Amino acid sequence: MLLLRHALAVLLLTAATQALAEEALAAEEALPRRVGDCAETTVRATGTRLESGGRPVAGSGSQITYGNGGGQVSYDTVPGIEASRPGDRVRLCLVSVPRNCPANDARGRVYRATNLRSQGQWTLADSAHSCGG
């Protein structure tokens, strides 16, 4: 009987864990595709723009990656990014898309981000260089 209770408890815990994981994945919205559209995602990681030998290079700028595969980068240190933590909810809105880009070069999309925990905001491109450059 004790073994049966243990097995049932493990089964319930596994189902609950899977449900939480599915809920987290469902909460990740794809990157906005049209100017003016927004999506919610989470912060995956933050750091400096550059690393050397696996270590952050101070003063090289900021970078942030999101749970939906997006990211932003700046040559400047961005206080809103510095204050963000992994797991924070973020609203990303597409502000602009570069024109006349090579067919397979999508760099240079600019997003306005709002950290929903800290209320910090920043507007940056998804790459240090725009398409074609």
From TrEMBL:
Keywords: Signal. Residues 1-21 form the signal peptide. This is Secreted protein. It comes from Teichococcus deserti.
